[in-house]
Design the sequence.
């Protein structure tokens, strides 16, 4: 402990500028072999997120301000947050209480998974070309977590009514905070439901879902940062494709005749294709990376589900 205190005193004495602490934080993160993937994918961006937040500065701060000199108290605050990230292995958004998704800021804590779905890219482009001429007036976000997908969809389609469901009361409490944060009003309705169980019968033009799809074995092997997130949000206390199958087989009862289902299954896409090689899904190539995001048309999915049931 004394060595750590002496080291921190040396850092506070020798480093003076914002950019110095971002560089130093990144160096410390690399040495500690941290894992990323909760809003940043490298040590420099991670350090910048934490340093700027500790100083109460916007993460879009103009580069010129990075040369600003820090007071002794500011240096101590920055050092403390860098050390906390290393000592606890908490994802940065859990430390700052903030995450960004589809260009919007969301409140996060350990009750919900950190929003990072590549579906954000589709929301930002209005789900084109997959929606085509269709303008969704009713949207369902299954397994909403902290509400990021639902709220981003409401922002992208201001005339749409959005229903967001989750089986976790904790997650819905965070989603409510974010609805208040973004002043969604009655446009977004939060519903406690286990996939479709608890959801009133209705039809949606667009269903979007990033459900738990990570196998329990895969989850147990994830880096410590991911172990801080609720395991339920990764695997849903289900086996392999159970929840994904429940979504696919139940979707025809909730999709409009010309509706569209967007589903993220990540690396489990390989399992899904192996089990259902004739599933009428189009896997989407994403410009910003990510895999296992598929689009299914309501008519094609309904026909496939009927065929699967007939086959037993």
Sequence:
């Amino acid at each position: 402990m004394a060595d750590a205190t002496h080291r921190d005193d040396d850092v506070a004495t020798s480093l003076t500028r914002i950019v110095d602490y971002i560089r130093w934080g990144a160096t410390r993160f690399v040495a500690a072999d941290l894992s990323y993937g909760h809003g940043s994918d490298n040590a420099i961006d991670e350090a910048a997120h934490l340093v700027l937040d500790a100083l109460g500065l916007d993460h879009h701060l103009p580069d010129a301000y990075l040369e600003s000199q820090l007071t002794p108290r500011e240096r101590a605050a920055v050092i403390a947050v860098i050390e906390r990230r290393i000592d606890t292995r908490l994802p940065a958004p859990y430390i700052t209480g903030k995450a960004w998704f589809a260009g919007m800021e969301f409140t996060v804590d350990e009750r919900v998974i950190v929003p990072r779905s590549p579906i954000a890219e589709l929301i930002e482009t209005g789900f084109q070309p997959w929606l085509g001429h269709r303008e969704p007036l009713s949207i369902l976000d299954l397994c909403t977590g902290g509400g990021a997908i639902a709220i981003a969809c409401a922002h992208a389609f201001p005339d749409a009514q959005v229903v967001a469901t989750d089986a976790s009361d904790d997650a819905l409490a965070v989603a409510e905070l974010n609805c208040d944060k973004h002043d969604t009003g009655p446009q977004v309705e939060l519903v406690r439901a286990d996939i479709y169980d608890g959801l009133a019968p209705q039809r949606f033009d667009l269903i979007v879902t990033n459900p738990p799809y990570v196998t329990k074995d895969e989850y147990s092997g994830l880096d410590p940062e991911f172990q801080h997130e609720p395991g339920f949000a990764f695997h849903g206390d289900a086996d392999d494709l159970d929840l994904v199958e429940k979504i696919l087989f139940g979707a025809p009862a909730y999709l409009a005749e010309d509706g569209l289902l967007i589903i993220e299954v990540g690396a489990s896409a390989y399992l899904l294709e192996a089990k259902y090689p004739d599933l009428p899904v189009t896997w989407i190539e994403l410009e910003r990376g990510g895999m296992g995001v598929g689009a299914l048309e309501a008519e094609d999915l309904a026909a496939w589900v009927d065929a699967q049931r007939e086959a037993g």
Remarks:
- The longest strand covers residues 255-264.
- Strands lie at 98-101, 104-107, 138-142, 161-166, 188-192, 204-209, 255-264, 282-283, 293-297.
